[in-house]
Amino acid sequence: MASTQSSPAPGVTVETRFDFSSALDFLKAQLDENFLAKEWRATVTEAFYKCRDEDQSHDEKPSVIWFGVKFLDTLWVLLFGKTSQSPWKSMLVTLSSTKPNCKEDNRLDISSLTQMIKIRPAHVETAIREILRGYFPIVVSHSR
User: Fold this and answer.
1) pTM (global) more than 0.70
2) Contact 85, 69 (CB under 8 A)
């Protein structure tokens, strides 16, 4: 008996719709008001800088999809530790920071986002959402 295939059959395209804002809202909904008031901004800032430092594009322009998913995964680990796998981990391992992950993928200007965050550090979440808003939701297609 043949084993069950976990990847799409030849000629089949599987599409994943990714909405960064909805995902970030989901993550925030897992937290209590006290944490959001006292620790959220610092945690979001730390997650941003960790993602920026892990970017492999070497030109500070990683894939938008990669950055969005990497940011959410990093934020999850900072919030809940490594004992609980983030909902985005399995998607992250399939993405490239240096190449487009689908035809709608773009390059994110990390240096501009970094400048926005340095100018308005109290509004780090707003800056990230504003920059990414124009790119999401996006459909990532995987085919064989």
Assistant:
1) yes
2) no
